[in-house]
Amino acid sequence: MSEKTLAARLGTATEPTLPHHEDIAQWRPATRDDIDAIHAVLAAADAVDHPTWTTPRSEIADDFELEHFDPASDSLLAETVDGTVVASAGAMLHPSREGGELTVYLSGAVHPQWRRRGIGTQLMAWLDTRGRQQLAEAAAADASLTAAELKIFAEEPNTDQQQLADRLGYRAERWFSSMVRDMATPAPALEAPEGITVVEYTHDRDDDARDARNDAFRDHWGSRPSDPQRWKQFVGGEFFRPDLSRIALDADGQIVAFCLASVNEEDWVTLGASNSYIDLIGVIRTHRRRGLAPLVVSRTLQAIADAGLEKAVLDVDTASPTGANTLYEGLGFAATERSIALVTRV
């Protein structure tokens, strides 16, 4: 890495200019009134790029509540002459400054009927410029920051998005696989180690669970600490299911492992079966190599089966240092779709 400071490497923040495209009558920031229009674009894109699940409307709405996301500066919509939104994008600077590092997450989608016209090229260029502007402004305000990255998650079938990112210097660094388990196969009955108790998740443990999550994921690739606002949205959201989620406690009552699950019935149609999505699985670093991950997953699988759901779904980093993909295969999960993390570093 260069000996220059991060601020010097990033240079002066450049204001992104609005794109120009003959098929687009207006490029403008998004507002809360556009949530349904954005959701319509993403739903159409999801059906092509990852047809087994659809982005929930509430996930889009949650972004508009975040303190670190300013739609007026951080979002962009492409609108046709009749007022139809055909593309959307957002650049979000993560609030964490842990380790002197910054991360901007870039996301965008073009309605499939409007692809291959150059709209995505314009959208990606705007996103990259806005993301770099966010990094430059943050680095100029904090001399302790030493590293920065911009990150895009692309679905493997969406090669157009991958090519656009590649032209701007983004490189594939990690692959994430969706895995599905048929709940007709009974969950393994695993015994807890001495001194460990597995219990159903309850909301009085929300703060403890966030602390456990941040410890467990501290050394995982690309992971940033979950901030209180985003965590509250997750555990307080409409899809989170405490009754299916399990936490492992040590003799002092500390959360040492967790398996947190949700249910979105809209995904039942796209997957073709009732299912629960396992959002987070983790073990705090002081309690690894004791079999706690398969333990909490097996207990959550049993809860999913008891609820009468047909499938369990999760996503896994295929190069995880914990060997998670091998663990889940051993628990009966089979890989289906893949997504790719595309990254450029400063």
From TrEMBL:
One of its GO terms (molecular function) is acyltransferase activity, transferring groups other than amino-acyl groups. The keyword Acyltransferase applies. The keyword DNA-binding does not apply. Keywords: Acyltransferase, Transferase. InterPro entries: Acyl_CoA_acyltransferase, Bact_Acetyltransf, GNAT_dom. Pfam families: Acetyltransf_1. Residues 25-188, 196-346 form the N-acetyltransferase domain. It comes from the Bacteria. PROSITE patterns: GNAT. Coiled coil: none annotated. PANTHER family: AMINOALKYLPHOSPHONATE N-ACETYLTRANSFERASE-RELATED-RELATED. This is Mycothiol synthase. It comes from Microbacterium invictum.
